Amino acid sequence: MTYNTGDRIVLKKLSEPEKGIFSEITEPIREKIKKLGIEKEDIEEAINEARED
After folding, report:
1. DSSP letters for 1-53
2. Could you read off the pLDDT tens digit of each residue along the chain, which spans 53 residues?
3. Euclidean distance between the first and final Cα of the chain, in Å?
4. Distance between CA atoms of residues 35 and 28, nearest Å
5. Phi/psi at 20 (nearest 5 deg)?
6. What is the C-alpha to C-alpha distance for residues 36 and 6, in angstroms, rounded to an integer?
């Protein structure tokens, strides 16, 4: 995390969040992606294509 305090920029290490509501929301999405066989490279390629438009 980064934040500005006047003329300084402060960097703060964040700890890994506890499993909670975010995980509950994203788990079905992760399962669907796995079931469809979508790989990280596929997502990166789609992002790059969208950025070109």
Report:
1. -EEEETTEEEE-PPPPPPSSHHHHHHHHHHHHHHHHT--HHHHHHHHHHHHH-
2. 656 667 888 888 877 767 788 888 899 999 999 999 999 999 999 999 999 87
3. 30
4. 10
5. -155, -140
6. 48
User: Within its chain, how far is the Cα of 53 from the centroid?
Assistant: 22
> In which residue are the tokens 């796995």 written?
34
| Residue with token string 């402060």 | 10
Nearest of 9, 26, 28 to residue 17 by alpha carbon: 26
Instruction: Tell me the two tokens of residue 53.
Output: 């438009």
What pLDDT score does 7 carry?
A: 82
Name beta bridge partners: 4: 9
- Pull the structure tokens for residue 1: 């995390």
